[in-house]
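pinned: reference chain
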Amino acid sequence: MQASQGNQTASRLSRGRGVGLGLALGSAVAFGGSGVAAKPLIEAGLDPLHVVWLRVAGAALVMLPVAWRHRGLLLRRPALLIGFGLLAVAGVQAFYFAAISRIPVGVALLVEYLAPALVLGWVRFVQRRPVTRAAAVGVVLAVGGLACVVEVWSGLSFDVVGLLLALGAACCQVGYFVLSDQGSDAGDDAPDPLGVIAYGLLIGAVVLTVVARPWGMDWSVLAGSADMNGTTVPAWVLIGWFVLIATVVAYVTGVLSVRRLSPQVAGVVACLEAVIATVLAWILLGEHLSAPQIIGGAVVLAGAFIAQSSAPAKPPEGPVAGGLPEPKEQLSSTSSTA
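pinned: its structure tokens
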């Protein structure tokens, strides 16, 4: 009897992991399509900030019922909500969308994946804590891979401003990683991640409304169509794509996947986002990358994987940091925001 119950438990755990991996992959696919959906609208005449505002404000409206359900978070975790809204929502999205208006989607996202390496720099030089050798190797790989992605031997042929904007998105991700690490000891009082996402979107929408001033947007673009590598696509389809799929579905499936997987496994699967975004941009936007860029992108992702997977399962009590400051398990899925 006990053996039978053990087999049933193992079977349920296996199914749970399978579902979790499926959800994590779905989240990576959903997030990876955001730039592909947004870039045609930017090329049709919309300002990148206006596109970001449409994405965040639309998702915030969809998540309003969730925000109301978790309204107690406003008093319990105001700093976390504000940090998530400013950094993981408004900051990352604004910098990323501004970057893809100047450089290819895949390159922008690969630059953003320097975040694990930048977090290591924060841990080592700001917190003055030593890092593991594996994490340092991950940083070197990520930086070396980025040099291939931007083809430094060609005299940095990419738009420098676009690269700096993508780096700004990576820095915003670092800020959220650090913020999450500082609040990771909440124990049973850890905030529900769906509530954090909902309020992060609401706060991000408010901030972006002030910054983007959407009342000056060219609203006629929304009633027309955009060109996607020779194919005409209605603007409302692209908006629905990056609001419902690339934001709401992406965040929610990410949260659900982490509840079935460890944060490290979910984070590793999330690295596929850059691959998926690059492939989608290649197929749908005609943004082809050269062989050295593809190899460099693989090295960047390998470095990010090593830096992230070398992090301890729990926040360390000692002085050694292995990689990313690891958020509480319930919140770790909110770190992927592109």
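why pinned: Confidence is low (pLDDT under 50) at residues 312-335. The chain has 15 helices and two strands.
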